[in-house]
Amino acid sequence: MRTKSSKNVSLEILGDLKSVWNSITSQSNANSVFTTYEWLSCWIDVYASEAEQFIICIKENGFIVALAPLIIVPHNERGLNLRRLQFIGTGSCDYMDFIILKDPEECLGIIFDFIQVKKASWDYCDLRHISGESENWKILDNLKSDRKFLYTTFKETVCPYLKLDTNIESLLKSLKAGLRYDLTKGERELNKLGLVNYVNIHDQGEALEELPIFIDMLEKREKQVNRFSRGKSKEDRDNVFRTYIEDSNMWSNINFSKISVDNKPIAYHFGFEYNGKIYWYKPTFDINYFKFSPGKLMIKKTIEYAFINNYEEFDFLLGDEQYKFQWTKNVRDIRRICFSNSKTKSKLIHSWFMSVKPKLKSLRKSFSN
């Protein structure tokens, strides 16, 4: 622990910080829908109600100046029961960070010192989905230089995003001919089948009625492309969407929309609206309408909605799927930090995840080829 500081540090739980959390987050550079009190509390209620919250709170002169939204979750690795220190929301959020109002270098040093003081509580630390644009990132990347524990930082993935600084007409004209053709043809052919309608669902009761249809459509689409939510049960995933909708404060940040043909839903998007951005979170469509490009039409309609409502950015969120780059070339690098504590066991665990396990995976892949 650092002693020459006017700042005090303590461990807290999210519920005790409810009255001040969003005010602090909104003033920080970590301000996203995924760091709001509502999003974090919904995630904890569904996925981690029994986990040990490890929220580090730093105060100066009685006022909170930094928060570390961490949690300790049990993890089984090849029969070994481990305790992983991670950001709240890991596995579901697309951006996460330390929430700091002032003196970031000092506050991050205090946070990491405090984490090491509490090393008996955790076995390894895995902090994911930190934006490369974060003011904290360069500080975090350099922390390894003066610490006596294993510390690894690396690029994890990207978040493509579209700046909405023109208008929808100019954007559509800038798209490649193939995408423009798919959009025009898809909408034209759908109109032959019936009345095509794009609707944003603004009523919570209606959203709850639509939710089972959305979930069923999502599962069929994921099965088609062999993509599943790892580590999440169907019941938990259904519950988290329901919890988002039922939370009256969270509801104001939700963008739940659908495209229908003669009142039959053929595509949905469940995402978020926050701080001038649309977050493209969980889209899906009826696989029987694949030839009409309903996924592309949903993106177009949602971007149109964003322009009409004066949003500044359309964020495609995590992943480098090719369809995103049909709309934009802009990306944010997403970074990851993994580190041990000073215990031998923790250093061995870190070496396993950062070195041994990836090498074994690579060997298996080479042999299978």
Describe, in short, the structure shown:
The chain has 369 residues and is of the alpha+beta class.
Your description of this structure?
By secondary structure, this protein is an alpha+beta fold. The chain folds into 2 domains: about 190 residues, Gcn5-related N-acetyltransferase (GNAT) (Aminopeptidase, 3-Layer(aba) Sandwich); about 150 residues, 3-Layer(aba) Sandwich (Aminopeptidase). Helix content is about 40%, strand content about 30%. It is built from 11 helices and 15 strands. An 11-stranded mixed sheet has the order 2-5-6-8-15-9-14-13-12-11-10. A 4-stranded antiparallel sheet has the order 1-3-4-7, covered by helices on one side. A hairpin with a 2-residue loop joins strand 3 and strand 4. Helix 7 runs antiparallel to helix 8. It is globular, with a radius of gyration of 22 Å.
For the terminal residues, how far apart are their CA atoms? Answer: 50 Å
The CATH level-2 architecture of the largest domain is identified as: 3-Layer(aba) Sandwich
Unreliable residue runs: none
Query: Per CATH, what is the topology of the largest domain?
Result: Aminopeptidase
| General form | globular
Q: Report the top-level CATH class of the largest domain.
A: Alpha Beta
Determine the strand fraction and express it as a percent band: 25-35%
Report the biggest beta sheet as strand number plus sense, adding barrel if it closes: 11 strands, mixed
Structural class: alpha+beta
How many domains in all? 2
- The side-by-side strand order for the widest beta sheet comes to 2-5-6-8-15-9-14-13-12-11-10
Total helical segments: 11
Helix coverage percent: 25-40%
| CATH superfamily membership of the largest domain | Gcn5-related N-acetyltransferase (GNAT)
Query: How many β strands by DSSP?
Result: 15
Overall mean pLDDT stands at 93
What Rg, in angstroms, do the CA atoms define?
22 Å
N-to-C series of helices and strands = EHHEEEEEEHEHEHHEHHHEEEHEEH
